[in-house]
Each structure stands twice: as structure tokens, then as C-alpha cells.
Specification:
The protein is α/β, with parallel strands linked by helices. The protein is 28% helix and 16% strand. A seven-stranded parallel sheet has the order 5-8-11-13-14-15-16. The protein has a six-stranded parallel sheet with strand order 1-2-3-6-9-12, with no helix packed on it. The protein has a three-stranded parallel sheet with strand order 4-7-10, with no helix packed on it. Strand 14 (237-239), helix 5 and strand 15 form a beta-alpha-beta unit.
């Protein structure tokens, strides 16, 4: 065995130490090169000539190694973000980065995602009860058919996040700015919102019956097709907010609008005119 070949490969492969597939390539290549070197020596080539010809025979090895390493790392990242069908109850994901993570059919009861960057991740048909998402980044995340009972969202980053057909009883959103978030076919009657700002949020076919939004801010929000009986907006701020029924305005919808409390709220003229035309009690509202 020629030690010079071993030293040469070690120098070339050093930047990729730890990448499994590259290590395997190195071992295979060393065996082939040693065999080639012995053949050249057997043909009468001197040591230096045989070594040079052996090295030249492998071509642009650095480019090959780079391609193998990139592919390996890509596959490793996919493995690290695929948690489908896993039992991860009470797992510690605090502070991790897991972009485009997959959590389908997973047991995540009581798991800690505080401060984690989960951008682009997908949660589907999973048990996420009592999970902690405080300070987590859920930008572009999809949360579909989940049980989020008693989950915590304190100062969570919610941008273009989609909640759909999920249970949020007792889930608590505190100090959150919800930006372009969609809540579809979701029961929010027992969800807790405190100190939140709703910017471009779409409450689509949601049940907000009896919900309390006192003192919170709504900008460009759509309450279209939402159940709003006895919702409280005391002291809330409205700007370009839409309230529309599923189809035409019916007596039932008018009656529902009249049960909403807007006492002490502040709203722009367009929102005010819209609600006034629906018969809402705006006697204690400030128009700006």
C-alpha cells in the first residue's frame, strides 16, 4: 500500500469529514487507487510516475466529492425534518430550526416548540394538546385537523399561517400579531386571545360565538361567514374590517349582528357605515 495515496486522499476529503456517503466514497476510491498503482508498478513504471498516473486517472475528484456531499447533506436534512407518524409526546424542540418539517399523524402531546423556527412546516392530523409554541416562528405553516387543546402561543410569530379544521379549546394566544393568517372551519368559542393584533386575518366559516376580543386591534380583517353571536369587542380598534354573511343578508344574520358588543370601540368610517347598515348597536363607538 502506498502511503502517499492515503495522504493525498486525506487532504482532498478533509473538508467533508463526517459526511457518511463521502467517507464511503473515500474508502472505495482508496482501494481502487491502490490497485491501479500496483498495476502501473507491475508494468515497470517508477514510483513517482506510477503515483502521478494513478492520481490523473481519477479526473476531477474534488467536483465529484462536492456533488456527493451536497446530495448527502440534502438527504440528511430531509430525514431530520420528517417526523410523520412519530411518537414525540413531551419532546424538546425548543430553539431548533426545522424548516418545512413534516408532522403528519404524530403524537406531540405536551411537546415544547418554544423559540423554534418551524417556517414552512406542515402539521396534519396530529395530537398537539398542551404543546408550547411560545416565541416560535410559524411563518407559512399549515396546521390541519389538529387537536391543539390548551396549546400556548405567547408572542408566537404567525405570518400566513393556516389553521384549518383544528380544535383550539383552551388554546391561548397572548401578545401575538397575526398577519395574513387564515382560520378556516375552526371552533374558536373557547380559544383565548389576549393583547393580540389581527392584521389581514381571515376568519372563514369559524365559530366565534361568545368570544371576547376586548381591547384588541383589527386591521383589514374579514369576519365573512363567521358565527358572531354575543361576541364582545369592547374597546377594540377597527380599520377596514369586513362583516359579511355566507350568502345574502338574512334576518338571522341581522339578529346576530345586533348581539355583538362594540361599546367603547374605535373604528374607521367605512367599517362604521357597514355595521350601521346591518343594524349593529354603535351608540358607544368612536369614529375616526
Amino acid at each position: 500500500m502506498n502511503p502517499k495515496l492515503t495522504d493525498y486522499l486525506n487532504s482532498v476529503f478533509t473538508p467533508y469529514d463526517g459526511v457518511i456517503s463521502v467517507s464511503e466514497l473515500k474508502a472505495d476510491l482508496l482501494t481502487d487507487l491502490q490497485e491501479r498503482y500496483r498495476e502501473l508498478r507491475a508494468e515497470g513504471k517508477d514510483d513517482e510516475t506510477a503515483f502521478k498516473m494513478t492520481i490523473e486517472s481519477i479526473g476531477d475528484i474534488e467536483q465529484t466529492i462536492l456533488e456527493v456531499a451536497n446530495l448527502s447533506r440534502s438527504l440528511e436534512r430531509q430525514v431530520l425534518t420528517n417526523f410523520n407518524g412519530s411518537n414525540l409526546s413531551e419532546s424538546d424542540f425548543a430553539g431548533v430550526t426545522a424548516h418545512k418539517g413534516q408532522f403528519k399523524g404524530s403524537a406531540l402531546h405536551g411537546s415544547n416548540f418554544s423559540g423554534a423556527d418551524l417556517t414552512g412546516s406542515s402539521f396534519k392530523a396530529s395530537d398537539v394538546r398542551e404543546a408550547n409554541f411560545d416565541g416560535a416562528n410559524l411563518t407559512d405553516c399549515s396546521l390541519y385537523a389538529l387537536d391543539l387543546t390548551n396549546a400556548s402561543f405567547n408572542k408566537t410569530i404567525l405570518v400566513r399561517t393556516n389553521f384549518s379544521k383544528s380544535g383550539l379549546d383552551g388554546a391561548k394566544f397572548t401578545g401575538v400579531r397575526l398577519t395574513d393568517v387564515t382560520l378556516t372551519l375552526t371552533d374558536l368559542r373557547k380559544t383565548i386571545f389576549e393583547g393580540c393584533l389581527f392584521d389581514g386575518v381571515d376568519f372563514k366559516y369559524t365559530d366565534l360565538t361568545g368570544q371576547c376580543f376586548d381591547g384588541q386591534t383589527f386591521i383589514g380583517v374579514k369576519f365573512d361567514k363567521a358565527a358572531l353571536t354575543k361576541v364582545s369587542f369592547r374597546g377594540a380598534t377597527f380599520q377596514n374590517v369586513s362583516f359579511q354573511p355566507g350568502f345574502t343578508l338574512t334576518n338571522k344574520y341581522y339578529r346576530m349582528i345586533k348581539t355583538i358588543c362594540f361599546d367603547g370601540a374605535t373604528m374607521d368610517k367605512l367599517t362604521y357605515v357597514l355595521l350601521k347598515g346591518m343594524g349593529a348597536d354603535l351608540s358607544k363607538v368612536t369614529v375616526r
